[in-house]
């Protein structure tokens, strides 16, 4: 027979549930942490991923200046010792975060390059994806090129950065219809890679810093940054008029 809501057994069950819930604190990151300050019940690998996810959110929201080990712990809702346990120090954390950025970046480049038909279309698609990634993840993009804050000897970061260079070299080689070795470049090959990278990276930094707005407002109505980039890329490939 069903017991009434106010029965002793029901009240006892509710009291036990209340005590259990009183031991749980909701942290800003939304994860559960005990009052004793111990880590939320993540699996080891899941906690590491949660910390990196928290670090990425902080980076995009508050910039590199707001990215500290304690801030990451608060964002993830775990004890302040957790980031140190997994990454050693802030350099270790931001280096692993930059590795994630490079992997995301490389995936975006590869997907864009696969969509084009001719080498030129592939190269232009990669360039536009480069800029689009930076616009969508400005904090992560900026971190990836802050070499003085990173430990480039960490295997994950070194491998991801090398893969990024390999993708760029491969795209330039395809456009030049030649195989480019990652280990040894001719001067002409190195110049081609540096020229392409300088153009797109420079454009991206000017765009993120708002320095292209003066040019854009002088262009015909409806011209946006992507249209300007497209014109720059076509000129770079075909050469200036009359050349």
Brief summary of the model shown:
The chain is an all-alpha fold.
What can you tell me about this protein's structure?
This protein has 243 residues and is mainly alpha-helical. It is built from eleven helices and two strands, in the order αββαααααααααα. The chain has helices at residues 8-22, 44-62, 69-76, 82-87, 90-115, 119-136, 138-144, 155-176, 187-208, 213-216, 225-238, and strands spanning 24-26, 32-34. Strands 1-2 form a two-stranded antiparallel sheet. Strand 1 (24-26) and strand 2 (32-34) form a beta hairpin. The termini are far apart. 27% of the residues are buried. Residues 1-40 have low confidence and may be disordered.
Question: Total strand count, please?
Answer: 2
The unreliable regions are 1-40
Structural class: mainly alpha
What is the number of helical segments per DSSP (H or I, 4+ residues)? Answer: 11
Which whole number gives the mean pLDDT?
83
Taken in chain order, the helices and strands follow as HEEHHHHHHHHHH
Percent range for helical residues? 55-70%
Radius of gyration using CA atoms only? 25 Å
- The side-by-side strand order for the widest beta sheet comes to 1-2
């Amino acid at each position: 027979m069903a017991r009434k809501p106010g029965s002793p057994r029901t009240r006892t069950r509710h009291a036990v549930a209340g005590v259990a819930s009183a031991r749980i604190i909701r942290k800003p990151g939304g994860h559960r942490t005990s009052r004793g300050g111990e880590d939320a019940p993540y699996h080891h690998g899941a906690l590491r991923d949660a910390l990196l996810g928290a670090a990425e959110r902080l980076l995009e929201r508050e910039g590199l200046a707001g990215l500290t080990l304690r801030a990451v712990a608060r964002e993830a809702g775990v004890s302040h010792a957790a980031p140190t346990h997994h990454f050693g120090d802030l350099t270790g954390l931001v280096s692993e975060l930059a590795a994630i950025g490079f992997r995301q970046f490389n995936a975006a480049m590869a997907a864009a390059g696969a969509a084009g038909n001719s080498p030129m279309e592939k190269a232009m698609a990669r360039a536009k994806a480069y800029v689009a990634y930076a616009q969508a993840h400005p904090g992560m993009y900026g971190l990836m090129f802050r070499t003085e804050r990173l430990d480039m000897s960490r295997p994950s970061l070194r491998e991801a950065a090398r893969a990024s260079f390999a993708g760029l070299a491969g795209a330039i080689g395809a456009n030049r219809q030649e195989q480019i070795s990652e280990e040894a470049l001719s001067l002409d090959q190195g110049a081609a890679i540096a020229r392409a990278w300088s153009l797109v990276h420079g454009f991206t930094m000017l765009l993120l810093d708002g320095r292209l707005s003066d040019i854009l407002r002088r262009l015909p109505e409806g011209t946006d940054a992507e249209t300007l980039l497209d014109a720059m890329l076509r000129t770079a490939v075909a050469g200036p008029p009359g050349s």
